Amino acid sequence: MAQLKDDCFAFGGDLMPLEDALADLSDRIGPVMGSERVPLAAALGRILAQDIVAERAVPPHDNSAVDGYAVYFDDLDPVGDTRLAVTGRIAAGHPLGRYAQRGEALRIFTGAPMPAGPDTIFMEEDCTEDGDGVILPPGLKRGSNRRHAGEDVKKGAVIIRAGQRLRAQEIGLLASVGLSEVGVYERLRVAVFSTGDEVRDPGDEAPDGTIFDANRYAITALLQGLGALVTDLGILKDDEAAITKALEDAAPDHDLLLTSGGVSAGEEDHIKAAVGALGQIHFWRLAIKPGRPIALGQVGGAAFLGLPGNPVAAMVTFMIIGRPLVLRLSGALDITGAHYPVEAGFDYKKKAGRREWVRVKLESNSQGHLVAMKHHSSGAGILTSMVEADGLVELAEDIEVSEKGAIVDFLPFSEVTGR
Question: What's the gap between Cα 97 and its chain centre?
């Protein structure tokens, strides 16, 4: 594991716009993981550790896009039917093995290599068999239905850059150039804690005044969706000495320590003091809602991220801030989720200078357009609002009033949950 820079989380000061904070994060933080080679079948979701240069063209030879007949275009009558003798058969994986002669037609099947000489292919449904020959209609353009070697991938081209998180399509492309294994960054090791005397594990007794721990399970699921190796270190009681020891013990074996709750300025919020005693901590002063407070810091060689205690705030801030942090530490270059324009089905007022996220469900209106409908509950502790939503509408700092019918930026949960 590479050491983080000592000042990698030193983002304090005045309230910072989110875009500036994410750009700063991307600039200051790099991969902390080594690399390893894994079988291609096990590479889904992993982050590529080096550029991939194709050692083979795809397709490797000119081939047929259809079932039909391969001919010389110059043998065709430009205005009437042409009859040619059918003198050979070419199937996928079975080249003709000779140079085709002028005046002959060759039966060819989809994916079969083009014979040397012919340059045009007729679809079989456009042709008429005639004994040992075939009748070809006029009007086809030269080179029709022929795929060229290297049409998809040229030999020597960089086909995927380091830092790309591998999806099914990248796996397929790597296989198409003959790779059976690939170099990827090792998985980020993350220790996850919850904090609070009131917090209980699901399945335990829950006397009056206590709550079951949703945060640790939700955040663990989000981390696993990003390919991280998660260690569940349970619930930390509101005791500074115990919190300090737990973080100190976890740091040597992990790349990121992540807590939820206990990062505000209350008398029972001890995370700030514990992290500060072991390393350094900075409150990332972001003008966002939901999500305050958020703490970032460093304990030895491990990064630290402290999320809010309310479950919706914890999930949203992880999606917006924690996810980019995890991806960047893991070696990824693209660390933000894609937004899509949709129509707002609600009116909304907000404070200028603050970015906000509104939980919404997409519905189709009478014109077939997607409309974002605001969930009726907006509290930071209403987890059902996340379950019943499809994603978040993001309202930028310069917006004070968003009216029904306006075009807004929609961030689907599918873009930020890692699955």
Answer: 45
Q: What does the alpha-carbon distance between residue 275 and residue 260 come to, in Å, rounded to a whole number?
A: 14
- In this structure, are residues 37 and 46 in contact, taking their beta carbons and an 8 Å threshold? no
Mean pLDDT of 87-91: 97
Total structural domains within the chain: 4
Residue 47: exposure state from Cβ atoms within 10 A (0-12, 13-18, ≥19): buried
Q: Which domain holds residue 294?
A: 18-34+187-330
Write the DSSP symbol of residue 58: B
Please tell me the distance from the alpha carbon of residue 305 to that of residue 257, in angstroms, as a whole number.
6
330, 349, 379 — which closes off a domain? 330
Residues 116 and 133 in one domain: yes
Signed CA dihedral, 226, 231, 232, 234: sign only: negative
Give residue for tokens 């995927």: 160
Residues 192 and 320 in one domain: yes
Residue 9 is assigned to a structural domain of this protein: no
Assess if residue 295 is contained within a domain: yes
| Domain assignment present for 6 | no
Residue-wise DSSP of 300-335 = TTEEEEEE-SSHHHHHHHIIIIIHHHHHHHHT-S--
**Cα separation, 100 vs 88, whole angstroms:** 9
The whole-angstrom separation of Cα 376 and Cα 93 is 60
Q: Which CATH number does the domain housing residue 403 bear?
A: 2.40.340.10
Query: How far, in Å, are 360, 364, 371 from residue 367 at the CA level?
Result: 19, 8, 10
Q: What does pTM read for this prediction?
A: 0.86
**In 10 A of CB 269, how many CB atoms?**
20
Q: Are residues 140 and 169 in the same domain?
A: no
What does the alpha-carbon distance between residue 35 and residue 57 come to, in Å, rounded to a whole number?
27
Residue-wise pLDDT for 64-86, tens only, equals: 999 999 999 999 999 999 999 99
Q: What digits encode the pLDDT tens for the residues 248-272?
A: 999 999 999 999 986 665 544 688 8
Distance of alpha carbon 377 from alpha carbon 312, whole angstroms: 11
What is the distance, to the nearest Å, from the Cα of residue 385 to the centroid of all Cα atoms in its chain? 24
